[in-house]
Amino acid sequence: QDPKKQPRAHGLKVYPIVGTSSHFVKNQDRFLEWYTGVMQNSPNHTLSFKVLGLTGGAITADPANLEHILKTNFGNYPKGELSVSMLEDFLGHGIFNSDGEQWLWQRKAASYEFSKRSLRNFVVDAVRFEVVERLLPLLERAERDGQTVLDVQDVLERFAFDNICRVAFGEDPACLAEDGMAAPESAEFMAAFNDAQNAIMARFMSPAKWLWRVKRVLGMEPERRMRSALATIHGYADKIIRERREGGAEGAGQLARRDDDFLSRFAAAGEHSDESLRDVVTNFILAGRDTTSSALTWFFWLASTRPDVEAKILREVRAARASAGEGASATFSLDELREMHYLHAAITESMRLYPPVAGDTHSCKADDFLPDGTFVGKGWLMTYCAYAMARLEGIWGEDCEEFRPERWLDEEGAFRPENPFKYPVFHAGPRMCLGKEMAYIQMKSIVACVLERFSFRYVGGEGHPKLIMSLTLRMGGGLPMQVKKRSG
Ligand code: HEM
């Protein structure tokens, strides 16, 4: 056999028949930490494996390999049938879960909408509403009631869910509103999304990629919950689409244009079946909800450990407030947010260390060699690990594990972007994230408005919070914080 085709598993013991799979099983509760150690010890930051009867795979943390997979040889690394089939009952064939032509037309339509100023303005308004009407009052109440500990991760997740539902299809589930204000079906919809994501994660993490189908037939967990979650999600989305069709001013079949939301925008752009409109809803909710909340959860934790960084952010926010003058809005305008370079750097640096999408997997269409010589076989899964990349000295220098926003600033203090193959937090190449700018608007607005008025103290005890690798990187046990209003 060609020696190049031998799996490379530097530093890992390869057992007969099971190969390296026992390492995966043993480390399944701490995948990220384990991968990172393996990547740090591997001279080319790449690992490949093939176990009898199971799908082969490779994992890399090398920017040159990423460029090859995500751009240069893009056509050879689609999402692939295996992944698409595992997500199909949840996401249909929406933008996240399609390849080739089916993906391309959706990408073109979505890119066009994302480039419009009207969408940015709509997002700014939606964020302003949620910050002013929900988030700030909630923090005020937490302080006033002496409710000493707040799970900030939960607050951020509810914020993101309300926000993305409004942007995706013009509905306000009010999950962050005062207790009892949210309609029961909205809370159910959000809970169903959580159940579906957990089931999907279990499908992907299982070494036998067919096992979930057996569990589904037998009604075993987590597939049993998945079944009812899907009924709830699809029922909710279908109801919205039906109501919009019925209210369509231009006659039967047309959707009522409620607002500037995505559903209205897509529907206005051409004829779509109810099913493909439902895919728009589910795919955009998935894209926009837990990503920003994950990023901000880790950000608020990191900021609480670094008063020097927090002080610099506060200085920048107060300067923006001072130049806006009396009578300005409680939130910040797009232009004001754009000028906050230090805040931009601090959020970017936090996502470097804690990327919301910690790893991403594609499939290999035809036998290939990566630039570092690693062989990848037809049908193998090809993964890159953004979490491990942040911790490689070869990429970020000796202080790679340190939270240092300054690494993103030039001498004048202006934000300096990095090569996306070195920083694949928003993915890279033709499938790069479309919501990046929208995400920054949301994240910067929240941090600026909240830190301007409140300070937080982490009360989760000593040591590092637990990493939970769900579809996004979550914090085990939440983010318990004591909230205090700033005096001046
Ligand atoms: C901090 C926040 C965010 C991060 C870190 C992030 C990251 C990513 C990543 C890694 C991908 C590639 C996933 C894959 O293909 O498997 C992606 C794709 C995508 N993201 Fe984001 N995202 C964020 C927020 C958003 C928001 C708010 C939206 C807006 C709804 C959005 C819309 C999309 C879309 C539509 C795609 C699919 C692009 C395609 O396949 O062509 N993202 N994002």
Give an overview in words.
This protein is of the alpha+beta class and 488 residues long. The chain has a single domain (110-359, 386-485), classed as Orthogonal Bundle (Cytochrome p450). The chain contains 19 helices and 11 strands. The strands form 4 sheets. A 4-stranded mixed sheet has the order 1-2-7-4. A 3-stranded antiparallel sheet has the order 3-11-8. Strand 1 and strand 2 (57-60) form a beta hairpin. Helix 11 (262-268) packs antiparallel against helix 12 (274-288) and helix 13 (290-305) packs across helix 16 (341-353). The radius of gyration is 23 Å and the shape is globular. GO terms for molecular function: heme binding; iron ion binding; monooxygenase activity; oxidoreductase activity, acting on paired donors, with incorporation or reduction of molecular oxygen. Heme binds at residue 433. Belongs to the cytochrome P450 family. Keywords: Heme, Iron, Membrane, Metal-binding, Monooxygenase, Oxidoreductase, Signal, Transmembrane, Transmembrane helix. InterPro entries: Cyt_P450, Cyt_P450_CS, Cyt_P450_E_grp-I, Cyt_P450_sf.
Count of folded domains = 1
Beta percentage is 5-15%
Overall 3D geometry?
globular
Q: Any idea what the radius of gyration is?
A: 23 Å
CATH topology: Cytochrome p450
Residue stretches low in confidence (pLDDT < 50, at least 5 long) are: none
Structural class computed from helices and strand pairing = alpha+beta
**Share of residues in helices:** 40-55%
Physical arrangement of strands within the biggest beta sheet: 1-2-7-4
Q: Helix segment count?
A: 19
CATH architecture: Orthogonal Bundle
**Average of per-residue pLDDT values:** 89
The small molecules bound here are: protoporphyrin IX containing FE
Sketch the topology as an H/E string, one letter per element.
HHEEHHHHEHHHHHHHHHHEEEEHHHEEEE
Top-tier CATH class: Mainly Alpha
Largest sheet: 4 strands, mixed
What distance separates the N and C termini? 71 Å
For this structure, what is the CATH homologous superfamily? Cytochrome P450
Number of DSSP-assigned strands:
11
